[in-house]
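As described in the Methods, two query proteins were run sequentially through the folding procedure within a single session, without resetting any intermediate state between them. The first query and its resulting structure tokens are shown here.
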Amino acid sequence: MAMVKMVEDGAAPKEVQAVFDDIKATRKSDWINNFWKVLASSPATLQRIWSNVKQVMAPGAIDPLTKEMLYIAVSVTNNCEYCIHSHTAAAKAKGMTDEMFAELLAVVGLANETNRLANGYRIPVDEQFIPKLD
């Protein structure tokens, strides 16, 4: 259950509806998901986060599927059920297969384990791994 009242599409204040309309247009969708409806309880937060999402998730040097898979990896590590579901759906829509998802989770699990080992042992970083800045 949400901690605040969700703002519904079509019944939102003007500034919120403008963001909702942009979300639908950008995503070529006819609905607003619960994440945005909850954030709409704070119009400034809604506008800021949507602006950040549009910028970061836009086409760039990293392809859209890889961005979604990175989002899944972080969401799994942070245990965000909502983001795991929403970004897995988005990644599948962009071509992620069940085999890719399984391999992604294997990498996430391995990285979390080895990160904890490296942190626990306080392993010094090899000089060769540190970038030489000119």
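Immediately afterward, the second query was submitted; its sequence and tokens are:
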Amino acid sequence: MSKKKNVFISHYNKDDKHLHSLIDRLNKKGYEIRNGSIDRAKYRPYRVTDALIARYLRARINWSGTFICLIGKDTHTRPWVNYEIKQAHRLGKQIVGIYAHGCSDSVELPEAFKKYGGSPIGWNSLDKLGDILDGKITPPENPDGTAKQTPIYNIIRVAC
């Protein structure tokens, strides 16, 4: 089975260090990560239009097999992150959230992630992220990597 994965990692540009760390950690786990997201280190020195940025992002998200949202303390404030998540949903991509290193339960999720994403996983859950990249289903968890308690609902049957 090939461990080469095309991913788009949505993130706030101030979290670039976490982006590079995540890719390095996945590479050490044996994955060959081909990242389609925009890296601040590769920015052009001139300003481009929002329409051009949007077109470029759509193409990169479409190219990816998995969409990962790197969730830091200010990610929820970034309009491009919400745009990217909406595009990933529109294109039918699997949307995975991973909390940046050091984030706690108080981190707010981006609005689009709340609507279209699943349960985010903790920074130290590389095995779970690897399973997700390989197409396996994993249980939801808290930012610290502990299992998230899901509510148990009683089924009430009503005769009509």
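The helical segments are 16-28, 50-63, 79-90, 111-116, 126-133. We note this only descriptively and draw no conclusion about the first query from it.
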